[in-house]
């Protein structure tokens, strides 16, 4: 009986530790594409749900749970405020603001959709992305720029949080 109890405890502990939301890497991906037809920059930021939830709990409300059925307006308000503070974009050396279109959850990722309207004649774009650096020191942010026939990716770290692409 004691052996059965020990085996059962071992199996339950293995299952419990295998289903936690921990992941090995702390990374976000922000993709910025230019739509010539709409004259806009279309942005998708992908952030692990558990990391984003941890940040929003520490920064805004300790009871936040990121799920489709939970307080959508308040969560989007916090997400918009945080992303606006941590994702800065300059086009032709001028700061531009994005519109927060919305978010969705797929598997363990939050997809945040943003747009910057009325953009034309792009000579340069600079992106500063410090998402999650304030709560996860090992965080890395990948920025993918797909603009005007150029396709570049950058790895941003807490001590190197900007990238730039020139079209001259």
From TrEMBL:
It holds the Pfam family DUF6702. InterPro entries: DUF6702 (IPR046525). It comes from the Bacteria. This is Peptidase E. It comes from Winogradskyella echinorum.
């Amino acid at each position: 009986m004691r052996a059965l109890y020990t085996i059962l405890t071992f199996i339950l502990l293995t299952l419990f530790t295998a289903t936690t939301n921990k992941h090995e890497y702390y990374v976000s991906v922000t993709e910025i594409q230019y739509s010539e037809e709409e004259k806009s920059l279309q942005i998708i930021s992908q952030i692990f749900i558990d990391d984003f939830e941890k940040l929003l709990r520490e920064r805004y409300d300790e009871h936040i749970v990121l799920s489709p059925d939970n307080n959508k307006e308040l969560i989007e308000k916090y997400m918009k405020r945080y992303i606006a503070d941590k994702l800065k974009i300059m086009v032709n050396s001028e700061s531009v603001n994005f519109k927060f279109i919305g978010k969705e959850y797929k598997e363990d990722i939050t997809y945040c959709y943003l747009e910057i309207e009325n953009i034309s004649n792009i000579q340069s774009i600079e992106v500063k992305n410090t998402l999650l650096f304030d709560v996860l020191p090992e965080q890395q942010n990948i920025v993918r720029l797909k603009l005007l026939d150029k396709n570049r990716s950058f790895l941003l770290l807490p001590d190197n949080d900007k990238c730039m692409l020139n079209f001259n």
